[in-house]
Sequence to fold (183 residues):
Amino acid sequence: MLASLGLRVTVLPSAYDETPLPGLDPAEIALRHARGKAAAALPSQELIVAADTVVDLDGEPLGKPADAAEARAMLRRLAGRWHIVHTAFALRRDPIAAAYSEVVSTRVRFADLDDETIGAYAASGDGFDKAGAYGIQGFAATLVERIDGDYFTVVGFPLAAFAQALPRVGYRLHLMNSEVHAR
Fold:
């Protein structure tokens, strides 16, 4: 998604373990994971950007499904209902800690879904690597009836909030040449 802004992106490995965090609400989980990923990333001279997305169904976090059966169960629970997608991002410009982090939340309503549609989507495997067992940017867009908020938050990275946060850590996104520059 950052590359869609014309930015040169290098993926750096992070040793952060996304173990479930009991006792935190879903937005706090997303924020803790984003900060943890940023802190665990290898040191770099460039701006480090980390993110995490958690689907929130009535206060219960829905992560990535382990298999098709779990994906079907999640999709059945989401069918015909509103839920919230929380995407947190953390920006780090030094090797020690995140300099800025934020959570952006968007409400999503799924259409009423029949078992055949749920089964076919789950069997496709498209949602296996996505919180809540779906990716709105693909076929799952046909499962969504309405969103209230930022579409890119549901996709997995709130681009507008990211661009607005850059000056807080000494960077600015320039439209003319699509680069991030330190101030």
